[in-house]
What we know:
CATH superfamily of the domain at 88-207: Nucleic acid-binding proteins
Number of strands: 8
Distance between the termini: 129 Å
CATH architecture of the domain at 88-207: Beta Barrel
Number of helices: 3
Strand content: 25-35%
Largest sheet: 5 strands, mixed, barrel
Structural class: alpha+beta
Oligomer: single chain
Amino acid sequence: MGEKKSTKLCKYCQTEIPAKAKVCPKCRKKQGLGCLPIIIIVIVVILLLSLLFSGGSDSNEKENGSSQGTETSGGESSGQDSAEEIDPEEYKAECADLVYNDVMRNPDDYIGSKFKVTAQIMQASDGITTGKYYKVFTDDGSGYYFDKMIWVFDKRDEKSEDYVKLLEDDVVTFYGEFNGLQETENSLNGSKGEDMSLDVYYAEIVKEAE
């Protein structure tokens, strides 16, 4: 093996100087470390750039994942929020017996409350804006339906398999919600009054008209 050189050339003046000399004795200029600093700088820059690109990629993936998660959550939410049909039997079970005088005395306290009432249809009509509605009377306790008068607005789905057309003189148990008092006027003497009105969603015929 050859001996290691004990001298080197100055980078600036090309004078032969000791190999370990850091300053040229002739031109007094410091001798650099060659290409090593440049190589180190390049490596550091490459590492920094790779870290930056890597961080940006991770951020995009997280954003995409978050976006996809939001869309999925939204889809599930809309599915959960969609109104499901209430089971008829459950709805009927929620309806309390109508106490006419209590509701008439404090109508505002009962708006939207669910009630059931058995009454006889005395008049059946079909309005342009209101749809089918009935003038009904409750039983006075003697078996005759001439007691309390109620306006019943038929909100049932005519396409339902359980739908049945109601006729005048039918005795029906109605299930629905109190929607307030209906202002009425007597066609004979012009006197005005207020009558109870119900939005009905289910009905069961107790006795068909003869």
